[in-house]
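Methods: example folding runs. The two proteins below were folded one after another, and each record is reproduced exactly as written to the output file, sequence line first and structure-token line second.
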Amino acid sequence: MCIRVIEHNAVAFGYAHRLTIKEVGVTMFEVIFEGLFECEYLAGKKGPTSNWIRGMAAGFIEELFGGKWSATEVKCVNAGDGVCMFRVVRQ
């Protein structure tokens, strides 16, 4: 339930056109942004550019599930992908 609130807030606050958070396992989530503002703002840069959002994704999961989590950007529109996707894993 709390994850759905984060997804809706990301859109409401203008972070992205759409956000989807998928639980891949007990220690991993995939956070997928469509139309992420940070990548649109940094359009033209090569490679992953979502450093601020990467930290926010890990922080959201830490607040919800406790423990220490880290996020890695595995897809980015500025690297030619259709979405920006982060893998958030428990450390």
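Second run, written to the same file directly after the first:
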Amino acid sequence: MTIVQITLPDQLAQEAKQAGLLSQTALVKLLREQLQARHQDAFFAAMERMEQFEEPPAMPPEEVAGEIRAMREARRAKAAG
């Protein structure tokens, strides 16, 4: 377990203490909520960045099959050589 020491303005510390926000349980909950919110913000920011790019056109099935065949042949050649 890590011990964290913080400095707060007196008024804020008193209000937070009276509200029960300085207990270990409350602080753990607040920190977890903030971490989750930041992860969500990062996720949505990534989604927005992804929306800026055009999706490439779909490959026809024959082209996909050709790519798979070429990959398999390359693997076989590498394994044999």
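Comment on the second run: The chain has one domain: 11-80.
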